[in-house]
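Milestone M4 deliverable, item 7.
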Amino acid sequence: MHKQLTEIMKKHNIVPKDKPNKQTPTKDKPFDDKRLNELWKKTLDAQHFDDNEVKIMKQQLKIHQEKINQYQELVDDLYGENSHPAAVQAKRNNAVDKDEFQAREMDLKLQHKRLNKDFQTLNVKTIPEEERGGFNEPRIINFWKDAQKTNFTEEELISLKEELRHFEGKLMKYDTMQEEAMYAERTYKKKKMNGEKVDMKKHTAMREKVKDIGNSVKKFFTSMKEKISSRKQQHNEL
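Output delivered:
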Protein backbone atom coordinates (compact mmCIF):
# COMPACT_ATOMS: atom_id res chain seq x y z
CA MET A 1 0.00 0.00 0.00
CA HIS A 2 2.83 2.41 0.88
CA LYS A 3 4.62 1.79 -2.43
CA GLN A 4 1.35 2.17 -4.35
CA LEU A 5 0.56 5.45 -2.59
CA THR A 6 4.02 6.84 -3.33
CA GLU A 7 3.70 5.91 -7.01
CA ILE A 8 0.27 7.57 -7.23
CA MET A 9 1.61 10.70 -5.56
CA LYS A 10 4.63 10.80 -7.88
CA LYS A 11 2.40 10.26 -10.92
CA HIS A 12 0.13 13.17 -10.01
CA ASN A 13 2.94 15.42 -8.77
CA ILE A 14 1.68 15.33 -5.19
CA VAL A 15 5.13 14.89 -3.68
CA PRO A 16 7.29 16.55 -6.35
CA LYS A 17 10.83 17.68 -5.83
CA ASP A 18 10.40 20.87 -7.83
CA LYS A 19 6.58 21.00 -7.98
CA PRO A 20 6.49 21.00 -11.84
CA ASN A 21 2.74 21.70 -11.94
CA LYS A 22 3.19 25.02 -10.14
CA GLN A 23 3.41 28.19 -12.23
CA THR A 24 3.73 31.89 -11.52
CA PRO A 25 0.31 33.45 -12.24
CA THR A 26 0.08 35.91 -15.14
CA LYS A 27 -2.79 37.70 -16.88
CA ASP A 28 -3.21 34.85 -19.39
CA LYS A 29 -2.44 32.15 -16.84
CA PRO A 30 -4.07 33.35 -13.60
CA PHE A 31 -3.63 30.14 -11.62
CA ASP A 32 -0.73 28.49 -9.81
CA ASP A 33 -1.62 25.08 -11.15
CA LYS A 34 -0.62 24.23 -14.73
CA ARG A 35 -3.66 22.02 -15.37
CA LEU A 36 -6.05 24.76 -14.23
CA ASN A 37 -4.41 27.23 -16.61
CA GLU A 38 -4.87 24.74 -19.44
CA LEU A 39 -8.52 24.36 -18.45
CA TRP A 40 -8.91 28.15 -18.32
CA LYS A 41 -7.60 28.40 -21.90
CA LYS A 42 -10.08 25.72 -22.98
CA THR A 43 -12.83 27.74 -21.28
CA LEU A 44 -11.91 30.92 -23.17
CA ASP A 45 -11.70 29.02 -26.46
CA ALA A 46 -15.01 27.19 -25.92
CA GLN A 47 -17.76 28.48 -28.23
CA HIS A 48 -20.63 27.18 -26.07
CA PHE A 49 -19.90 29.46 -23.09
CA ASP A 50 -21.45 32.93 -22.78
CA ASP A 51 -19.74 35.70 -20.77
CA ASN A 52 -21.59 34.86 -17.57
CA GLU A 53 -20.72 31.16 -17.84
CA VAL A 54 -17.05 32.09 -18.35
CA LYS A 55 -17.15 34.13 -15.12
CA ILE A 56 -18.77 31.24 -13.25
CA MET A 57 -16.16 28.83 -14.60
CA LYS A 58 -13.32 31.13 -13.52
CA GLN A 59 -14.77 31.27 -10.01
CA GLN A 60 -15.02 27.48 -9.89
CA LEU A 61 -11.40 27.19 -11.02
CA LYS A 62 -10.38 29.64 -8.28
CA ILE A 63 -12.15 27.52 -5.69
CA HIS A 64 -10.39 24.43 -7.02
CA GLN A 65 -7.04 26.22 -6.82
CA GLU A 66 -7.75 27.02 -3.15
CA LYS A 67 -8.48 23.34 -2.51
CA ILE A 68 -5.20 22.38 -4.19
CA ASN A 69 -3.34 24.89 -2.00
CA GLN A 70 -4.97 23.51 1.16
CA TYR A 71 -4.10 20.00 0.06
CA GLN A 72 -0.49 20.91 -0.64
CA GLU A 73 -0.22 22.42 2.84
CA LEU A 74 -1.27 19.05 4.30
CA VAL A 75 1.28 17.26 2.10
CA ASP A 76 4.04 19.65 3.19
CA ASP A 77 2.98 19.29 6.82
CA LEU A 78 3.31 15.50 6.63
CA TYR A 79 6.36 15.14 4.39
CA GLY A 80 8.05 18.55 4.47
CA GLU A 81 8.36 21.00 1.58
CA ASN A 82 9.97 19.87 -1.69
CA SER A 83 10.25 16.31 -0.39
CA HIS A 84 11.97 13.81 -2.66
CA PRO A 85 10.26 10.35 -2.77
CA ALA A 86 13.32 8.82 -1.06
CA ALA A 87 12.98 11.37 1.77
CA VAL A 88 9.26 10.57 2.01
CA GLN A 89 10.07 6.89 2.44
CA ALA A 90 12.61 7.77 5.12
CA LYS A 91 10.01 9.82 7.03
CA ARG A 92 7.60 6.91 6.75
CA ASN A 93 10.17 4.44 8.08
CA ASN A 94 11.26 6.73 10.91
CA ALA A 95 7.78 7.80 12.02
CA VAL A 96 7.36 7.44 15.79
CA ASP A 97 3.75 6.35 15.38
CA LYS A 98 3.59 4.45 12.09
CA ASP A 99 -0.16 3.75 12.34
CA GLU A 100 -0.91 7.46 12.70
CA PHE A 101 1.42 8.28 9.79
CA GLN A 102 -0.36 5.71 7.61
CA ALA A 103 -3.77 7.10 8.60
CA ARG A 104 -2.68 10.60 7.59
CA GLU A 105 -1.39 9.26 4.29
CA MET A 106 -4.77 7.64 3.66
CA ASP A 107 -6.47 10.98 4.35
CA LEU A 108 -4.22 12.57 1.73
CA LYS A 109 -5.01 9.83 -0.78
CA LEU A 110 -8.75 10.31 -0.25
CA GLN A 111 -8.49 14.07 -0.61
CA HIS A 112 -6.45 13.69 -3.77
CA LYS A 113 -9.06 11.39 -5.27
CA ARG A 114 -11.78 13.98 -4.57
CA LEU A 115 -9.64 16.74 -6.08
CA ASN A 116 -9.07 14.72 -9.24
CA LYS A 117 -12.78 13.90 -9.48
CA ASP A 118 -13.69 17.59 -9.14
CA PHE A 119 -11.13 18.50 -11.80
CA GLN A 120 -12.59 15.98 -14.25
CA THR A 121 -16.07 17.45 -13.64
CA LEU A 122 -14.73 20.91 -14.54
CA ASN A 123 -12.95 19.47 -17.56
CA VAL A 124 -16.16 17.93 -18.94
CA LYS A 125 -17.88 21.34 -18.74
CA THR A 126 -15.45 22.69 -21.36
CA ILE A 127 -16.63 20.06 -23.85
CA PRO A 128 -19.76 21.00 -25.86
CA GLU A 129 -22.72 18.73 -25.07
CA GLU A 130 -23.05 17.61 -28.69
CA GLU A 131 -19.49 16.24 -28.54
CA ARG A 132 -20.05 14.35 -25.26
CA GLY A 133 -22.44 11.85 -26.83
CA GLY A 134 -24.54 11.86 -23.67
CA PHE A 135 -21.58 10.68 -21.57
CA ASN A 136 -20.22 12.27 -18.39
CA GLU A 137 -16.94 10.43 -17.83
CA PRO A 138 -13.98 12.14 -19.59
CA ARG A 139 -12.26 8.89 -20.66
CA ILE A 140 -15.50 7.55 -22.14
CA ILE A 141 -16.12 10.85 -23.92
CA ASN A 142 -12.65 10.62 -25.47
CA PHE A 143 -13.36 7.06 -26.67
CA TRP A 144 -16.61 8.25 -28.26
CA LYS A 145 -14.98 11.24 -29.96
CA ASP A 146 -12.16 9.03 -31.32
CA ALA A 147 -14.63 6.39 -32.52
CA GLN A 148 -16.40 8.95 -34.70
CA LYS A 149 -13.13 9.66 -36.51
CA THR A 150 -12.84 6.07 -37.71
CA ASN A 151 -14.51 3.98 -40.41
CA PHE A 152 -17.13 2.47 -38.07
CA THR A 153 -20.50 2.16 -39.79
CA GLU A 154 -23.54 3.89 -38.30
CA GLU A 155 -24.79 0.56 -36.98
CA GLU A 156 -21.40 -0.21 -35.42
CA LEU A 157 -21.33 3.22 -33.77
CA ILE A 158 -24.77 2.62 -32.23
CA SER A 159 -23.54 -0.71 -30.85
CA LEU A 160 -20.29 0.86 -29.61
CA LYS A 161 -22.18 3.69 -27.94
CA GLU A 162 -24.31 1.21 -26.03
CA GLU A 163 -21.20 -0.69 -25.00
CA LEU A 164 -19.60 2.54 -23.75
CA ARG A 165 -22.77 3.54 -21.90
CA HIS A 166 -22.85 0.20 -20.11
CA PHE A 167 -19.19 0.48 -19.20
CA GLU A 168 -19.54 4.07 -18.00
CA GLY A 169 -22.04 2.83 -15.41
CA LYS A 170 -19.61 0.12 -14.35
CA LEU A 171 -16.76 2.62 -14.19
CA MET A 172 -18.74 5.02 -12.00
CA LYS A 173 -19.65 2.12 -9.71
CA TYR A 174 -15.98 1.15 -9.53
CA ASP A 175 -14.95 4.71 -8.62
CA THR A 176 -17.52 4.72 -5.82
CA MET A 177 -16.38 1.34 -4.54
CA GLN A 178 -12.76 2.42 -4.70
CA GLU A 179 -13.51 5.48 -2.58
CA GLU A 180 -15.53 3.38 -0.11
CA ALA A 181 -12.61 0.95 0.14
CA MET A 182 -10.26 3.84 0.86
CA TYR A 183 -12.55 5.13 3.61
CA ALA A 184 -12.71 1.59 5.02
CA GLU A 185 -8.91 1.41 4.91
CA ARG A 186 -8.66 4.67 6.82
CA THR A 187 -11.22 3.50 9.41
CA TYR A 188 -9.38 0.19 9.74
CA LYS A 189 -6.05 1.91 10.36
CA LYS A 190 -7.51 4.38 12.86
CA LYS A 191 -9.29 1.63 14.80
CA LYS A 192 -6.08 -0.38 14.85
CA MET A 193 -4.21 2.74 15.98
CA ASN A 194 -6.68 3.19 18.87
CA GLY A 195 -6.40 -0.44 19.87
CA GLU A 196 -9.95 -1.29 18.79
CA LYS A 197 -10.99 -4.68 17.45
CA VAL A 198 -10.81 -4.91 13.64
CA ASP A 199 -12.11 -7.50 11.16
CA MET A 200 -9.06 -8.29 9.03
CA LYS A 201 -10.91 -10.81 6.79
CA LYS A 202 -13.70 -8.35 5.95
CA HIS A 203 -11.18 -5.63 5.22
CA THR A 204 -9.09 -7.91 2.97
CA ALA A 205 -12.18 -9.22 1.11
CA MET A 206 -13.32 -5.68 0.23
CA ARG A 207 -9.86 -4.71 -0.95
CA GLU A 208 -9.61 -7.83 -3.16
CA LYS A 209 -13.06 -7.19 -4.66
CA VAL A 210 -12.10 -3.65 -5.65
CA LYS A 211 -8.82 -4.96 -7.06
CA ASP A 212 -10.65 -7.54 -9.23
CA ILE A 213 -13.03 -4.91 -10.62
CA GLY A 214 -10.05 -2.63 -11.23
CA ASN A 215 -8.38 -5.32 -13.31
CA SER A 216 -11.59 -5.72 -15.32
CA VAL A 217 -11.70 -1.95 -15.92
CA LYS A 218 -8.09 -1.93 -17.13
CA LYS A 219 -8.80 -4.79 -19.55
CA PHE A 220 -11.77 -2.92 -20.99
CA PHE A 221 -9.74 0.25 -21.51
CA THR A 222 -6.97 -1.68 -23.25
CA SER A 223 -9.44 -3.59 -25.43
CA MET A 224 -11.47 -0.49 -26.39
CA LYS A 225 -8.34 1.53 -27.14
CA GLU A 226 -7.05 -1.20 -29.45
CA LYS A 227 -10.46 -1.61 -31.09
CA ILE A 228 -10.77 2.10 -31.93
CA SER A 229 -7.10 2.53 -32.85
CA SER A 230 -7.21 -0.34 -35.36
CA ARG A 231 -10.25 1.13 -37.09
CA LYS A 232 -8.72 4.59 -37.07
CA GLN A 233 -5.62 3.18 -38.77
CA GLN A 234 -7.77 1.46 -41.41
CA HIS A 235 -9.63 4.74 -41.95
CA ASN A 236 -6.38 6.66 -42.45
CA GLU A 237 -5.13 4.08 -44.95
CA LEU A 238 -8.18 4.50 -47.19
